[in-house]
Amino acid sequence: MELGFIVPSDIRSFKDLERFIVATVLAKVAELVEAAVRRIDESLSPPGRGWKSVGRKTKRVTGLWGLEYRLQRRMYRRRRPDGSWEECCPLDDKLGLPHRERFSPGVQEWAVELATRHPFRVAAAILAEAGIPVSAQTIHRWVQEAGASREAEQRRAVEAMEQTGELPPGEGREATAVICEVDGVWVALQREKQRRWELKLGVLHEGWEPESPAGRCFRLKGKGV
């Protein structure tokens, strides 16, 4: 198989070779993404009447694996009734790219997922190891935005249920009954204004099932803590 590139002579270890190959492949990925973006942008129609083209503008986006994209896309603007200007980019709307965000949606999704398991600074450190220089404050903002979006989605689902009386479609398997058991334990605090704090534990399950054919011992069915 032809490589299509020359391996540098200063490579002294397999680790160096691996890093060189990965960097070469990622550079090609960035080129392909930028070329695909240009093709998609050219296929999009202007937003409509009243919008005037202001030419192409470059949007710098940091993606997964620390890839840096220079996305060329057409911009339009029009004057609002109050005299101010508003801008529109059909490509950003098509691909779901926030207008003033310099990280790709994939990076944001990964950061929010990390933040559900680690502190914000640890999540930022993990991303930095992957070549993505994002701050803990930025991750915190993304988590807040994701939470607000999820809350709005749940609110719309509840409002739709109240209007129609129909339950929204569930996710995963169905259960005949779901039982919730909750308990807590109080622990003493030191050097805090509040002297005691309750640690709570909740368990969801679908009832009890025998552990053995004799039916003397039982276990929780479909347990989730």
TrEMBL record:
InterPro entries: UPF0236. Pfam families: UPF0236. Belongs to the UPF0236 family. This is UPF0236 family protein. It comes from Carboxydichorda subterranea.
